[in-house]
Amino acid sequence: MNKLEAEFSNLVKAYRKRHMGKGPGRITTTFCKNWAICEMEGNLSPVEKFIAGAEDGKQMLREARTQWVKEIYRNHPPVEMEELLGARFLDLYVDIDIDKDFGMSIFVFDRVLPQS
């Protein structure tokens, strides 16, 4: 991970903490074409871990997590990330494995990002 990717990771963590109350414990970002691919560990709060143990809890939590994150980015565009990269944010793809507490987010921008 180069310096720009590390800075992007820090912005993602701060953004999620600000808008969701908790950011991931660890983020690794890789730029590929016009994508910023973030691998995230330690996403779930203690309450979410408890919910995951209930019947249908994992599926409900996964759906809520993925849809909620996308909605937050739609309602609060990541201006700091756009400024860092000099690119406009277009879209976000999100998934999370509740059992592993591991998530992936792919940020799509309007231009090719610097490669590591």
From TrEMBL:
<feature type="domain" description="Na+-translocating membrane potential-generating system MpsC">
    <location>
        <begin position="3"/>
        <end position="111"/>
    </location>
</feature>
<protein>
    <submittedName>
        <fullName>DUF2294 domain-containing protein</fullName>
    </submittedName>
</protein>
<dbReference type="InterPro" id="IPR018745">
    <property type="entry name" value="MpsC"/>
</dbReference>
<dbReference type="Pfam" id="PF10057">
    <property type="entry name" value="MpsC"/>
</dbReference>
